[in-house]
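User: Please predict the structure of the protein below. I'd like the answer in structure-token form so I can feed it into my own downstream comparison script.

Assistant: Understood. Taking the following sequence of 359 residues as input:
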Amino acid sequence: MADDEKAHKQVAAAPAPSSGLAVSVSDPVINPGLAPHRKRMTDKDPAAMKRAARTVYTLFYLSAAASIWAVAAYLIFPIESGLVADIRRNNLFIGLGIAAALLAIGIAAIHWSKAVMADTEYIEERHSTRGSENTRAAAVQVFVDANEESGFGRRTMVRNSLFVALAASVLPGITLFRGLAPHSSPEHPNAGDPVYLLKHTMWEEGTRLAHDPTGKPIRAADLTLGSAVHVIPEPLATLSHHDGYLEEKAKAIVLLMRLLPEQLNESEDRKDWSYDGIVAYSKVCTHVGCPVALYEQQTHHLLCPCHQSQFDVTNAAAVIFGPAARPLPQLPITVDDEGYLVARSDFTEPVGPSFWERH
């Protein structure tokens, strides 16, 4: 027992292991101060300063030229043809123009700050609360001094070239919005009218419902209970991309489902819009236009995967959850003499999000 106590005391008296760092709490931390200031070449040579300023505003003007080139490329290489080569050239040259414009602005700004702006270190003491009027006046003076040090007000070429570059940099983005607008032509005089475009699709009386994308017509007898089929107008399959295949498909896509007839709660004016429990609704979500392509067979709910809007197929595709503002437009359907499903008419309301409507 005595030996154990002696060993325990020796361990307790042993010094703690050292980390290898010698720390003295009595010695204060010495402020190393600032390193001696080294003047830049532009500070010592006025000619170097002029060259640096010339480089800065030249880069700003190059940025403006690149932005203008991006706009010109949008016009020179139009994508309306639908040809892959035209689309590639359009993306390539517009992208190069925008990239060059932003890169030139960035390089010019960095070179301006490193070579032209004042290069003086200073220490600004903190204050704990809002300062006095003298302090506020001093704050204003800081902006005056910053303007003087940066040369923003004095170096007019640098300042004006920056304004030109920044103003020109937004032009490509504004120009690209033009591609989102509809284009009219002698063959399609109403193509520039958004109300007409959204209210009229390829569906018309007698148009057969066809599988997407094969274009094979659909017989009512072939649809099983609980099935959901992606549908396009039969004539759409004959269109090429040059003839507006994607544009027409974006408006006319439909989801076709078969339920028990007694499961449908139809209003009197829509009882003939379905056929033997088969209903057709637009796939374009009324929130922001995503494809409503998920069908829950047991609940008869349609789900938009983008923002989780849900529509009840048994109750005229009414919104039951999510941000969508109105039900999905229903396509009136029936069958022809051969048993194929056909449209009774076009949609009776504009397809897509509510904000697309222009009435």
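That's the full token string. The longest strand covers residues 228-233.
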